[in-house]
Amino acid sequence: MDVTIVDYKSGNISSVINSFKEVAKNKVNIEVTSDLNKIKSSDKVVLPGQGSFKSCIDSLKGINGLIDTLSDFALNNRKPILGICVGLQMFADVGYEEVETKGLGWISGKVSKIDNQNGKYKLPHIGWNEINIIKDSKIFKGIDNNSHMYFVHSYQFIPDDNSVTVATTDYASNIVCAIENENIFGTQFHPEKSDKIGLKIIDNFINL
Amino acid sequence: MLKNRIIPCLDVKNGRVVKGINFIHLKDAGDPVEQAKIYSDGGADEICFLDITASNENRDTIYEVVEKTSKKCFVPLTVGGGVRSIDDINKLLNCGADKVSINTAAVQNSKVVEDSSRKFGSQCIVVAIDAKRIDDGWEIFTHGGRNPTGINALEFASKMEKCGAGELLVTSMDKDGTQSGYDIELMQKISSMVNIPVIASGGVGTLDHLVDGIKSGASAVLAASIFHYGTYSVNEAKQYLASKDIPVRI
Predict the structure, then answer these.
(1) Model ipTM value
(2) pTM of the predicted model, to two decimals?
(3) How far apart are alpha carbons A101 and A94 in whole angstroms?
(4) Which domains does chain A have, with CATH numbers?
(5) Cβ atoms A183, A143 nearer than 8 A
(6) Which run of H or E residues covers position A165?
(7) Under 8 Å CB-to-CB from A133, ≥6 apart: which residues?
(8) What is the per-residue pLDDT across A61-93, written as a single tens digit (0 to 9) for each?
(9) Which domains are assigned to chain B?
(10) Interface of B with A (CB under 8 A)
(11) Is A11 in Cβ contact with B120 (below 8 Å)?
């Protein structure tokens, strides 16, 4: 099996690569590439994302044909794809970081700044927070409710249809922190930085 | 609920772990990769490396340490010390660091903070502030605490927030290495002034000091000696904080 981590020159993806390689051992081939053919032929795709919503979208656009290839993979071929952090956020229709920016539009919704309640809550939301699993998800197999995951973000994904939400976390408000819509998965937290429990989520995704 | 973080810090010189007393006298003790792994297995919420390698020819040792550590530890890794440019940051991130802390360069040229937070995202830019008490406040020191700058620490903290720093790592130069506790007043002042997380550093000798650090408003507490010399394990520290009703990840 081939799992491709999309390397679109946005932010730091070495931790994502290290964690997937650690979980995959030698059983699964982990590719790190932006090569369209390799993405097309892979079984699963991971879309990481660091930096701003806009910079990530711009970087995706910077690679000719990448967005079409990813959309084809996720929407037509319906193969499993996992978005991490801004990778998840980009699934939305629109993001409001820096300037209003159109997202991939795979899951209708928007990405807005976390309301810090006039400075009562510090931003970014950095650190370990508990996740409230509100719905069974394939990527949560063997994961206990209220497990701690590592978060680093100031913006949150707000889906139009809450049925895609599989977990939330509490910070200033109820923040959507994991989604599942058929073959499309996403986590706002960083499974690659969430110790053994995070690696378990990666393992679940690889073994879908 | 967001938990308070405990961050063990390892001072690394020429690829080996050391710990300074007041930044000057150093003792040698061990392999940073192994040490980091012990910490992460023990429940450390993050790991911090401070590279204090002085000579340029040995600067590359930290990259190797970071690369090896990031393949073994799956909690966030912050690396600081000698970070001067976007290029240095890029290199560290590519080796597997999750955050980079900038000290002297941020004081000399705040544009490094602006540019790097825009390029890599605020989440990976930590500004390290080394502050020393003066008559009517605190002054920033650079170059590992050797050079005074005349800059007011509180004003600088606020400026760094505006420049895009994701976190502030605040070290009291007066307290560092003394094991007499954080400079609580400094932590309170900076934490209440900025809207980004503050990591308290410098002076931890007992577990109560960690409690005091969190109560001062810091989001995370950093310590080196107490963990490094095995006075307490990270897990013991967390259990103690939990017993004092401080939310931690256990």
Answers:
(1) 0.94
(2) 0.95
(3) 6
(4) 2-206 (3.40.50.880)
(5) no
(6) strand A165-171
(7) A140, A143, A145, A166, A167
(8) 999 999 999 999 999 999 999 999 999 999 999
(9) 5-243 (3.20.20.70)
(10) 1-5, 40, 45, 70-71, 74-77, 93-98, 118-124, 166-167, 194-197, 219-220, 249
(11) yes
